[in-house]
From TrEMBL:
InterPro entries from the UniProt entry: GntR_C, TF_FadR/GntR_C, Tscrpt_reg_HTH_GntR, WH-like_DNA-bd_sf, WH_DNA-bd_sf
Species: Rhizobium esperanzae
Pfam families: FCD, GntR
Presence of the UniProt keyword Lipoprotein in the record: no
Record-given protein name: DNA-binding FadR family transcriptional regulator
Domain HTH gntR-type: residue ranges: 9-77
Keyword Transmembrane applies: no
SMART domains with a match to the protein in the record: FCD, HTH_GNTR
Keywords recorded for this protein, A-Z: DNA-binding, Transcription, Transcription regulation
Domain of life, source organism: Bacteria
Length: 240
């Protein structure tokens, strides 16, 4: 599984560099409609999941945008990351480090949100959770999932939580994509799995139970990591 992930990362990096070059050199100016996933996969001789990784990275950096039914188009003429100072994920070690950092930041954010969230912010979190009841495809799944986590960060009342998650946008989206690709079929659909793991977080925040919110977020992130890697990671920090 680890070699499979690393191969996917390397291939998606090559596609990303190729597409970025077309945009930065002006071959694809602003407003250009990007070829479909199937067309790009044929052009680069790779699978569609590899193409999706490269497109998600471009979207997270604000270089391209997408609208349902109209595909993706170029938004910016230069590959300048937006609100990001963390290096992209390049290998399995990077994935492990990203989850280790998220376990530290997001578990605390969930606990703080349970203590401080205003009624309206709790409703926003519930709304982000309920959004998974609609039509969820490969293009909007990552954004919907990230919206849920960002809503929790905002509910802390501490802008640094929100800023940190925003800076981790591409790393988080990348992990969410792999979670979907490598999930166990016995768990049910990707949406079912995420909704099932998000629900205890929503319930704990709504009930103003910080310890329960902390544990629910921790269980969710660890489960996501296990689905991606296929093995548990030793040495997780566990608070007394």
């Amino acid at each position: 599984m680890s070699l499979q992930i690393e191969e996917r990362v390397k291939l998606s990096d090559k596609v990303y560099e190729s597409l970025s070059s077309k945009i930065s050199t002006g071959e694809w100016p602003e407003g250009t409609r990007i070829p479909t996933e199937a067309e790009l996969a044929l052009m680069h001789s790779v699978s569609r999941p590899v193409i999706r990784e490269a497109l998600f990275r471009l979207r997270s950096e604000g270089i391209i945008g997408s609208k349902r039914g109209s595909g993706s188009s170029v938004l910016a003429s230069a590959a300048t990351p937006v609100n990001s100072s963390y290096k992209p994920i390049e290998n399995v070690a990077d994935l492990i480090h990203a989850f280790e950092f998220r376990l530290s930041v997001e578990c605390d954010a969930a606990a703080v949100a349970a203590m401080r969230a205003e009624h309206e912010q709790i409703n926003i979190i519930k709304g982000a959770h309920d959004a998974f009841n609609g039509i969820v495809n490969d293009e909007n799944f990552g954004d919907l999932d990230l919206n849920f986590h960002v809503a929790i960060a905002k509910a802390t009342g501490n802008q640094m939580f929100e800023t940190t998650l925003t800076m981790l946008h591409s790393q988080i989206i990348f992990g969410m994509r792999l979670t979907g690709e490598f999930r166990s079929a016995s768990e049910g659909s990707r949406v079912d799995v995420v909704r099932r793991e998000h629900q205890p977080i929503v319930d704990a925040i709504g009930a103003r139970e910080p310890k329960a919110a902390f544990q629910a977020m921790r269980q969710h992130l660890r489960a996501s990591r296990l689905r991606i890697l296929g093995f548990e990671v030793a040495g997780d920090w566990q608070r007394p």
